[in-house]
């Protein structure tokens, strides 16, 4: 059944990986990486601030180079792949999307918390009106029961999404949780389904393979796994695994390996390993991009990062609530946590 | 001489009903009509308090309402305010307090600029997040200037109605602009996050301001912020500092929480409470001027 099944590969090194380099990508770096990904046969290349268009801020970290300039640099190097941006309603706007389109973006992934799909309606509609490929992206998909994930996916389908992407933004899920969600959504919607993994529990490749086995046909990865928390599914490995399992993919995993070694190894701020705190993200079910902000707060308030993470998990914080790291750290430090 | 000014509400939904309860408590406003466009729970609720009602919207209000109604709250939608309610109220010479993002008139954040606006025929209440955060931005900018101000508003999913959900960009864009126009920051940025946790979280907002003049002492900035919080508490008793001001280089950070008064909406809906409380505070100020003038 795997034999010859077409799988579309999305690289998000230049978006999720932006977290891991504290949003410091330069035009030269994105040109080299985007050009290399295109030549390696990656189908969709995602580039924006890690928190999507308009993410450059105190809350999420300022971009060293404006994402619009980076988009321009990347698009000049791409001939075959779609150039995608991430957009989180509440952070980015349709005005930002129009600017991104002018700089070469042809696709957008509109991301909401798994229970809040209805805030994506205006943005998915706008993307379709602009003639863009539009993806409905449900973040933190571990936080809702499967029936609810299905309901929200159906909403995004009804707004005109071209496919639904489930994100395990906290790297919380194990393969059985992925299976349950992907199978249910694949069964419910008439459009393709994709999956975005984080490696906080060491499950990124296994979860991605499970998603594909359960009917997902769009899969995310990043070079060297560069991404928030413990990173994403390592794309050169993912491509190799899918290749050996007999799936039909455009991407050449040898070229991806070379690109990772030549262009990504030199710019990594730290090895993309599962550290104690980044494992705790997955264990406690906390949004992966909180990690570096938690390190900063732990240092400032002289706390164990793991204590901050566990408290954030208990409070049910969702993607984008980086400001609550300061809140939790302040309360832990002052004995205000019950 | 009358001791109260007659007011009406258009839009008998959650916001309009909560406004009605707040008006009942007011010392100088008299709830004189509730206008809707259909029979609804909100219309029945108003009737149960013997408030006259109409289901013909702004036209019904102008035709059948007490001609002495001087101030009208619009709690409908931006489209309705722009197309119908705003122009009709202007034509009839009534002061409109616009709770929609239409913003025909100037932005009003009572603790910052109400004195400048009380003569305007139509004032706009910005957004819930704007009402909660712009006073703090202004408290910093008035003593140390503001190059940039950024706010992150977190509201519980349950207190974000379909209007907010369908128009997220209106929130971010209107709030960003008002941070500049009213908060006096050179550049404003607003982020909104919906959180579905149960039990629902209280509205929480984070405010970051990059100051212009780093020679101004933190003590002075801190004092200005605390004074502003005292002003806000006069009409939003549940407004409090969750994380008191801190300063890191040229950046001041504050986290606030707003517990609603639970007049009609639950206490966690501090977002709805603060915009309604601000609207009523603005109306009271205008009424006070009117009563003095009589």
Keyword list:
heterodimer; A: 338 residues; alpha/beta; TIM Barrel; Helicase, Ruva Protein, domain 3; 2 domains; eight-stranded parallel β-barrel; 14 helices; 8 strands; B: 294 residues; Rossmann fold; Dihydrodipicolinate Reductase, domain 2; 10 helices; 25% strand
Would you kindly provide a written description of the structure presented here, covering whatever features stand out?
The complex is a heterodimer of chains A (338) and B (294). Chain A is of the alpha/beta class and 338 residues long. In chain A, 43% of the residues lie in helices and 13% in strands. In chain A, strands 1-2-3-4-5-6-7-8 form an eight-stranded parallel barrel, surrounded by eight helices. The radius of gyration of chain A is 18 Å and the shape is globular. Chain B is α/β, with parallel strands linked by helices and 294 residues long. Chain B folds into two domains: 5-125 and 274-293, Rossmann fold (3-Layer(aba) Sandwich); 128-267, Dihydrodipicolinate Reductase, domain 2. Helix content of chain B is 44%, strand content 25%. Chain B has a six-stranded parallel β-sheet, sandwiched between helices. In chain B, helix 6 (128-144) packs parallel to helix 8 and helix 6 (128-144) crosses helix 10. The radius of gyration of chain B is 19 Å and the shape is globular. The N and C termini of chain B lie close together (7 Å). The model of chain B has no long low-confidence stretch (mean pLDDT 94). The interface between A and B is medium-sized, with 29 and 31 residues.
Give a quick rundown of the structure.
Chain A has 338 residues and is an alpha/beta fold. Chain A contains 14 helices and eight strands.
List the helices and strands and how they pair.
The complex is a heterodimer of chains A (338) and B (294).
Chain A: E1 8-14, H1 16-20, H2 27-39, E2 44-47, H3 67-75, E3 82-87, H4 94-102, E4 107-113, H5 121-129, E5 133-139, H6 146-159, E6 163-167, H7 175-188, E7 193-196, H8 204-213, E8 218-221, H9 235-244, H10 253-264, H11 276-284, H12 291-301, H13 305-314, H14 323-333
Parallel strand pairs in A: 1-2, 1-8, 2-3, 3-4, 4-5, 5-6, 6-7, 7-8
Chain B: E1 5-10, H1 14-25, E2 29-35, H2 41-48, E3 53-54, H3 57-64, E4 71-74, H4 78-91, E5 95-98, H5 110-117, E6 122-124, H6 128-144, E7 146-156, H7 162-166, H8 168-181, E8 187-195, E9 203-211, H9 218-235, E10 239-248, E11 251-258, H10 270-293
Parallel strand pairs in B: 1-2, 1-4, 2-3, 4-5, 5-6, 7-8
Antiparallel strand pairs in B: 7-9, 9-11, 10-11
Helix pairs in contact in B: 1-10, 3-4, 6-8, 6-9, 6-10
């Amino acid at each position: 059944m795997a034999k010859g099944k077409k799988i579309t590969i999305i690289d998000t090194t230049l978006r999720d990986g932006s977290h891991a380099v504290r949003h410091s990508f330069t035009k030269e770096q994105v040109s080299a990486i985007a050009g290399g990904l295109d030549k390696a046969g990656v189908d969709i290349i995602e580039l924006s601030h890690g928190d999507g268009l308009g993410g450059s801020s105190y809350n999420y970290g300022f971009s060293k180079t404006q994402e619009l300039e980076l988009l321009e640099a990347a698009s000049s190097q791409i001939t075959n792949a779609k150039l995608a941006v991430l957009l989180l309603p509440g952070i980015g706007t349709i005005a930002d999307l129009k600017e991104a389109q002018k700089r070469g973006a042809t696709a957008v992934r509109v991301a909401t918390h798994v229970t809040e799909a209805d805030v994506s309606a205006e943005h998915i509609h706008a993307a379709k009106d602009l003639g863009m490929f539009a993806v409905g992206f449900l973040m933190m998909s571990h936080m809702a029961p499967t029936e609810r994930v299905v309901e929200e996916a159906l909403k995004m389908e009804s707004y005109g999404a071209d496919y639904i992407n489930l994100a395990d933004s906290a790297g919380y899920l194990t393969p059985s949780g992925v299976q349950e969600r992907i199978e249910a959504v694949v069964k419910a919607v008439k459009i393709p389904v994709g999956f975005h993994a984080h490696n906080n529990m060491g499950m990124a490749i296994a979860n991605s393979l499970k998603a594909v086995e359960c009917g997902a046909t769009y899969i995310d990865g990043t070079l060297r796994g560069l991404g928030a928390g413990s990173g994403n599914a390592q794309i050169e490995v993912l491509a190799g695994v899918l290749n050996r399992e007999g799936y039909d993919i455009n991407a050449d995993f040898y070229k991806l390996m070379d690109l990772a070694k030549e262009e990504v190894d030199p710019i990594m701020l730290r090895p993309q390993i599962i550290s104690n705190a980044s494992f705790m993200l997955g264990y406690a079910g906390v949004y992966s991009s909180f990690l570096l902000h938690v390190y900063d707060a732990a240092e400032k308030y002289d706390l164990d990062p793991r204590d901050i993470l566990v408290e954030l998990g208990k409070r049910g914080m969702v993607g984008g609530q980086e400001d609550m790291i300061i809140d939790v750290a302040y309360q832990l430090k002052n004995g205000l946590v019950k | 001489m009358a001791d109260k000014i007659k007011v009406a509400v258009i839009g008998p939904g959650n916001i309009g009903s909560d406004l009605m309860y707040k008006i009942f408590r007011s010392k100088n406003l008299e709830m004189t009509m509730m206008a809707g466009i259909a029979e609804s729970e909100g219309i029945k609720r108003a009737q149960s308090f013997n408030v006259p009602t109409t289901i013909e919207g702004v036209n019904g209000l102008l035709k059948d309402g007490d001609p002495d109604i001087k101030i009208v709250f619009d709690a409908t939608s931006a489209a309705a305010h722009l197309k119908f309610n705003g122009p009709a109220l202007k034509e009839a010479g009534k002061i409109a307090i616009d709770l929609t993002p239409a913003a025909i008139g100037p932005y009003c954040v009572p603790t910052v600029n109400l004195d400048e606006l009380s003569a305007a025929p139509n004032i706009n209440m910005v957004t819930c997040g704007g009402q909660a955060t712009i006073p703090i931005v202004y408290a910093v900018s008035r003593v140390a200037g503001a190059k940039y101000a950024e706010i992150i508003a977190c509201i519980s999913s349950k207190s974000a109605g379909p209007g907010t959900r369908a128009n997220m960009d209106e929130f971010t864009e209107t709030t960003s602009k008002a941070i500049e126009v009213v908060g006096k920051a050179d550049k404003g940025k607003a982020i909104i996050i919906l959180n579905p946790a149960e039990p629902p979280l209280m509205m929480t907002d984070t405010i970051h301001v990059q100051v212009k003049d780093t020679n101004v002492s933190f003590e002075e900035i801190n004092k200005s912020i605390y004074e502003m919080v005292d002003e806000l508490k006069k009409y939003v008793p549940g407004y409090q500092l969750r994380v008191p001001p801190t300063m890191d280089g040229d950046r001041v950070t504050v986290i606030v929480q707003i517990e609603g008064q639970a007049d009609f909406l639950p206490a966690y809906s501090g977002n709805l409470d603060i915009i309604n409380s601000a609207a009523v505070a603005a109306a009271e100020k205008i009424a006070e001027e009117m009563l003095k003038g009589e």
